[in-house]
Write a structure and sequence with these properties.
globular
Length: 250
């Protein structure tokens, strides 16, 4: 996870992180989407913000060598326990030679980068380490994918942040600056990510929506209470569909 986000204590979250993010089903779907956007010639892949390695460990195919990088020691340690070759590194400053990799991936990373120019810097770094013809694969519009037209979405709508860091048009602009041109895209289901009112309230208070929600005219506790009071507090709303795009190094 990104060091610039300052949203959660990812070292402390590492042990329970996967259970709150859809676990293996969502990770498997994410990995399949990334692999589907990699060119056949790709032999090396760096997974930025690899977290616990639950996705990274599933980025497997014959002839592909995969490395993970994360700024959180707790997360990188969890990834290593999963058998992922993980390094402790900021996504914006990688210990990698220029033009040395065939592919770089970033799953559920860019939306967390709140500092000015941070997302652009991460994409520029991806461009730096890619060989000509190499591919950068990233999720975009991640938080927007959770807007499925539910009563939870309607309640939260007045409190959404104005400029998500992974907005697709912005990502495309940052990629162009880094010498990366748009290539392909796909979507995958966020298994287990259909939100319940009670779960959304707990996530809000735990800081899991810090990249998405800025309560206006109310407090987080008041907003959480309104969420928990919605009908069917433990009934999951529809699951999101996440968007993934690839960009090719010129």
């Amino acid at each position: 996870m990104p060091d610039a986000a300052a949203l959660l204590d990812y070292d402390a979250e590492a042990e329970a992180y996967d259970a709150t993010r859809g676990g293996v089903p969502r990770a498997g779907a994410a990995a399949a989407a990334v692999l589907g956007l990699l060119p056949p010639h790709a032999r090396t892949l760096l997974d930025l913000g690899c977290g616990t390695g639950i996705v990274t460990a599933r980025l497997t195919r014959p002839g592909l060598t995969v490395l993970g990088a994360d700024a959180s020691y707790g997360m990188a340690s969890m990834a290593a326990r999963r058998g992922v070759r993980a390094v402790l590194a900021s996504a914006g400053r990688l210990p990698v030679r220029p033009a040395s990799l065939d592919a770089v991936s970033a799953v559920w990373l860019l939306h967390l980068l709140r500092g000015p120019g941070t997302a652009a810097a991460v994409i520029a770094e991806a461009g730096r380490v890619l060989r000509p013809g190499g591919v950068f694969v990233t999720t975009v519009d991640k938080d927007a994918a959770h807007d499925v037209g539910s009563d939870i979405d309607a309640l939260l709508a007045p409190h959404l942040t104005d400029a998500p860091a992974d907005a697709s048009p912005d990502v495309e602009e940052y990629a162009a600056r880094a010498g990366l041109r748009p290539d392909r895209e796909t979507r995958f289901t966020g298994h287990g990510q259909g939100r319940t009112p009670r779960g959304a309230a707990a996530d809000l208070l735990a800081g899991r929506y810090a990249s998405r929600i800025r309560p206006r005219g109310t407090t987080p506790h008041e907003l959480a209470a309104r969420l928990a009071a919605l009908p069917g507090p433990d009934v999951a709303r529809p699951e999101p569909a996440y968007r993934v795009r690839s960009f090719v190094r010129a």
